[in-house]
Amino acid sequence: MGRVGVALDLGTSGFRGQALDLDQNGRILSTAVTTRHPLPGANVMDHLHFAVEMGLNQAHKIVVHAVNRVIDHLKIENDEVVRLAVCGNPIQLSLFQEIEIRDLAYAGKRKLESLGVVAPKRDAQIM
After folding, report:
1. Is residue 96 part of a domain?
2. Are the C-beta atoms of 29 and 10 separated by less than 8 Å?
3. CB 92 within 8 A of CB 44
4. Which residues contact 113 (CB under 8 A, 6 or more apart)?
5. What is the pTM of this model?
6. Which of 15, 23, 46, 48 shows a CA-CA span of 20 to 30 A to 102?
7. Parent domain of 15
């Protein structure tokens, strides 16, 4: 095949992925869409609540499992993937990256200080 890029959208209502042929000007090879978000709940606050109550690690594992299933459904060879782009809101991206979420869950500086929460950097990254 050649060089493949994967674009992922970690949305509030579900995940979407596309495989792109990078040697053919980004021609779309395949698309996969979930019918719902992998975490329980109807909105991003429900997903955040689940992660706080059940643990960030558990939520992260569920999200990564769902991402892997989306990529599997793209029907591409993993060794051909040379680029992966992921987009989503700060909560979805934090769950995907398994970084602190409580700063997004609680309002008020005093509450965050009482919990010892330090907001992580959420800058875009190339890894």
Report:
1. yes
2. no
3. yes
4. none
5. 0.89
6. 15
7. 4-115
Residue 18: CB atoms within 10 A of its CB come to: 19
Residue 83 lies in a domain: yes
Distance, CA of 61 to CA of 57 (rounded, Å): 6
pLDDT tier, 126 (very low <50, low <70, confident <90, very high otherwise): low
Residue 32 lies in a domain: yes
For the domain that residue 77 is a member of, what is the CATH number?
A: 3.30.420.480
Tokens of 4: 């493949």
CA distance readout (Å), 1 to 29, 56, 68, 115, 122: 10, 37, 20, 50, 34
- 125 in a domain, yes or no? no
Count of domains for the chain: 1
Read out DSSP for the chain?
---EEEEEEE-SS-EEEEEEEGGGTTEEEEEEE-SS-SSSSSSHHHHHHHHHHH-HHHHHHHHHHHHHHHHHHT---GGGEEEEEEEE-HHHHHHHHT---HHHH--SHHHHHHHT--PPP------
